[in-house]
Amino acid sequence: MQVSPSLLSANFANLEGDMEWLNRSECDYLHLDVMDGVFVPNISFGFPVLKHVARICHKPLDVHLMIVQPEKFINEVKALGAYYMNVHVEACPHLHRVVSQIREAGMHPAVTLNPSTPVCMLEDIIGDVDMVLLMSVNPGFGGQKFIEHTYDKIRQLRQLIDSKGSKAKIEIDGGVSLKNAKQLAEAGADVLVAGSAVFGADDPETVIREMKK
């Protein structure tokens, strides 16, 4: 299991301190949720903040754009040195074009489904992406309750990936903790995004280590 702690839950008054323990931790990525207040009902942080984070974070960046027209920011995400650039299916009417542009820019393309968007929407794109993020809460805010139907969606997505011969990983974001990490893994998840469960812990490095197990 891979773990991608979410910067949304970090201490923004002490980002360098959080990056110090995160860099020495066993986490695999740093998850960056960019919100525009249009596609989702909140605003998080922009590229000036992310440029600073990218300089001090030694982990691969997992950039999740919860914004309209994410294709406009491919160059900015690339400039961060991002490993994954993740866009929402619901925000991209020309999804194949956007996915192709992300790969051409040298990043790994990923796509996200909101809780109410069915897995079947990915049938024609699953072979072109390296990861699919299933939102297990409604996007826009941290600290929400996990949506139980997510387990069924993970199993459906795993079947689709296997049937199409795709190598896409399955990532889960929202309400993830040590309480449900094992069940998510058993359903077929590969990457867990954890915000408050990690950054709010007394010993976040231990939480990451246990979650990976």
End-to-end separation in angstroms reads 7 Å
Inertia-based shape: globular
Main β-sheet: number of strands, strand sense, barrel status?
A: 8 strands, parallel
Beta-strand content: 15-25%
Kindly state the mean pLDDT as a whole number?
96
Low-confidence stretches: none
Widest sheet: strand ordering: 1-8-7-6-5-4-3-2
Helix/sheet category = alpha/beta
Structure overview:
The protein has 213 residues and is an alpha/beta fold. The protein is 33% helix and 19% strand. An 8-stranded parallel β-sheet has the order 1-8-7-6-5-4-3-2. Helix 5 links the parallel strand 6 (131-135) and strand 7. The radius of gyration is 16 Å and the shape is globular. The termini are close together.
